[in-house]
Automatic annotation (TrEMBL), chain A:
The keyword Transmembrane applies. The chain crosses the membrane at residues 12-32, 38-58, 88-110, 131-149, 175-203, 215-238, 244-266. It is a multi-pass membrane protein. It is found in: Cell membrane; Membrane. Its main location: membrane. The lineage of its organism: Bacteria, Bacillati, Bacillota, Bacilli, Bacillales. Keywords: Membrane, Transmembrane, Transmembrane helix, Transport. It comes from the Bacteria. The keyword Lipid biosynthesis does not apply. Belongs to the ABC-3 integral membrane protein family. This is Metal ABC transporter permease. Pfam families: ABC-3 (PF00950).
Length: 280, 206
């Protein structure tokens, strides 16, 4: 396996491993809070953050984190305003984020060698040491926050009104959760690409939802699924020369299809056996 | 806290409950809820909303996990549940006849069963005041009567306050101490009726 000798591939595997730990935790809460599309919105807004950084000549990661945090807070307010149509906030911010990114990049064109496509499609094989450290720090923070706040978050995702009546600061929790999601997306976006951030965060949790019946089971299974999907996607990308983010997404999609089919078959077979027994 | 077992019927019942809970802010007037219980500890309210049984069908949780979450607000947000908590959870599930189903996924339950585990969740909290919004929807006559007996037991033996919205006013007549009826005719302000089904006369404080 010559690919493990390359520094860039080693870093790509390290990054995939860390993302696999974070993605299912955030993904599950996003899915259950009906915010699956928020990840997509934030990744588009993220592009604007990067463009801003490139334009004013600051490390784009920092401007990006800042912009995404502001938008994540704004999202929560919009979600409160349009309570019954919470997708509106997503639609508005996604298009505005993209528009601002395009305008900023046009203004800054010529000043920088970095291109939009790099951030649109990501480049897991060009990440540097600094990004790995950042990702490691983020993984530790999210892991700790999850371990500490898993019970309040369970109640909040189960039912916001119940959470309110038991005295949880639901607004604060929602905003902080959005901010954390935003920061994660800002860090992951340059690695896997704006277009695929949400797929990588949402898919493992979505697949795992079909497999486990307990809350913690979903998160653990999600991590295994994310790991399998990301690592095999990376290998496929190396061997076939396909874009990494897209390869990972397609493999996760295949896992989803196989599991759905297997579940259906199992159900069918079990049913079949019962049916035969009752006849004989 | 006085021992009121209320029963509200008529219009805008849910709105009234939601105002009491603070989920809605009244446009006029104010809501006062004692912050301490009779023992001088923080008042714990247990709320079962009308739609709670139609929650997220896909919410990945076992019955046991959900009912255990009722214990979190008893100072267990950041601590492990101990023997006493587990005992409360077991008794709550048994009292609604769902102990055998504890390892089932909540999404696989029927509407009535979801209702019962939502109630078990509130029982496991062991609140001072139960606020129940049509908790018996989807229950048959037998389970309804069992449920009312359980509430009565909580109120008389454990001094719990219970405020409940319901449509079965005939069935509950023997159990409740006080009835509240909200009536509104078109173009007239809200009027509130208290129809006491017990001897003592009481005034309304809403």
């Amino acid at each position: 396996m010559e690919m493990f000798f390359y520094g860039f591939m080693q870093r790509a595997f390290q990054a995939s491993f860390l993302i696999s730990l974070i993605a299912p935790i955030l993904g599950l809460f996003l899915v259950l809070r009906r915010q699956s599309l928020m990840a997509d919105t934030l990744s588009h807004v993220s592009l604007a953050g990067v463009a801003l950084g490139l334009l004013i000549g600051i490390n784009p990661t920092w401007t990006n984190i800042l912009v995404v945090i502001i938008i994540a807070i704004l999202l929560e307010f919009l979600r409160q305003i349009y309570r019954t149509y919470s997708e509106i906030s997503i639609a508005i911010l996604m298009s505005v984020g993209m528009a601002v990114a395009l305008v900023l990049m046009e203004i800054g064109a010529g000043r920088t060698t970095l291109s939009v496509t790099q951030f649109l499609f990501g480049s897991i094989v060009t990440i540097n040491k600094e990004q790995i450290w950042m990702l490691l720090g983020l993984t530790i923070i999210i892991g700790l926050l999850y371990l500490i706040y898993q019970k309040p978050m369970y109640v909040l995702t189960f039912d916001e009104e119940t959470a309110f009546t038991v005295g949880l600061p639901i607004k604060m929790m929602s905003i902080l959760f959005n901010v954390l999601t935003g920061v994660t997306i800002a860090v992951i976006m340059p690695i896997v690409g704006a277009l695929l951030v949400s797929a990588i965060i949402i898919l493992p949790a979505a697949i795992s939802l079909r497999l486990s019946k307990s809350f913690y089971g979903v998160i653990l299974n999600g991590m295994v699924i994310a790991l399998v999907g990301m690592l095999s996607g990376l290998v496929a990308s190396y061997e076939l020369g396909t874009p990494p983010g897209a390869s990972i997404t397609i493999i996760l999609m295949l896992i989803f299809a196989v599991i759905t089919l297997a579940k259906y078959m199992l159900h069918y077979l079990k049913f079949d056996r019962l049916f035969n027994k009752s006849q004989g | 806290m006085s021992k009121i077992r209320g029963l509200i019927r008529g219009a805008a019942k849910t709105t009234l409950l939601r105002n009491i809970l603070g989920l809605l802010k009244p446009s006029k007037g104010s809501v006062q809820l004692s912050s301490k219980n009779r023992m001088g500890e923080k008042l714990v309210v247990g709320y079962v909303s009308q739609q709670v049984a139609s929650f997220n069908a896909g919410f990945p949780s076992t019955v046991l996990e959900l009912v255990q979450s009722g214990r979190f607000q008893r100072g267990k947000w950041f601590k492990r549940l101990d023997k006493e908590d587990k005992e409360h959870v077991r008794r709550s599930l048994e009292s609604v006849g769902m102990w055998e189903m504890r390892h089932k996924k909540i999404g696989e339950l029927s509407g009535g069963q979801k209702q019962r585990i939502s109630i078990a969740r509130v029982f496991s909290t062991d609140p001072d005041l139960f606020i129940l919004d049509e908790p018996t929807i989807g229950m048959d006559v037998h389970s309804r009567n069992e449920f009312y007996k359980l509430l009565k037991h909580n109120s008389t033996e454990h001094d719990k306050g219970i405020l409940m919205v319901t449509h079965d006013h005939e069935e509950i007549r023997h159990y409740a101490n006080k009835h509240i009826e909200l009536i509104r005719k078109e173009d007239s302000p809200w009027r509130c009726f208290s129809m006491d089904s017990c001897k003592e006369l009481s005034k309304l404080h809403f």
